[in-house]
Amino acid sequence: MKTWVKILLGLVVLGIIAAVLGYFFVYNKPHKDIEKAKPEYSLQALALFNEYVTDQTAAGEKYNGKVLEVGVTVTGIESNDTLVTVVSVLNQGMFGDEGIRFTMLEKYFEAVRQLEQGSSATIKGYCVGYTGSDVILEKCSIIQ
Question: Is the domain of 3 the same as that of 69?
Fold first, then answer.
């Protein structure tokens, strides 16, 4: 065989090995279990919201991608067939209510639907970021 054919075959084999390893160790990596994860920060809803409103960049660096435990007063619950979201309104903005939205894990749907408006709860979830009006937490569970 010619030298360039051997080099080409070697590169193809290395590419296949890299693709298989990438699939198993990067693409197929297990997701973090937010429900069982220890929260990196524990704070009240108003304090979290005010940090984002005051300095979105600094708050984003501090909280985005982290598991938070947030003490909240429930002001509303939004639900459809596949999602239940706990809403805590903390401010009236130019375009309506502003605050924190907690998208709940499916196993907490019934418990959340039984929460009354004005009740207090502690919710743990994964902070996605700030939309300009709401702080968004996903994969949330009720602690209290």
Answer: no
Q: CB neighbours (10 Å) of residue 129?
A: 16
For the chain, how many residues are written? 144
- Residue 36 in domain: no
- Could you give the count of Cα atoms lying within 13 Å of 60 in the half-sphere of its Cβ? 10
Range of the domain at 13: 1-30
pTM of the full structure: 0.77
Angle in degrees, CA 121, 122, 125, rounded to 5: 130
Which pLDDT tens digit goes with each residue over 85-100?
899 988 887 778 889 9
- Please give the Cα distance from 56 to 58 (Å, whole number): 6
Cβ count within 10 A of residue 136: 17
Domain count, the chain: 2
Are 130 and 109 spatial neighbours (Cβ–Cβ below 8 Å)? no
35 in a domain, yes or no? no
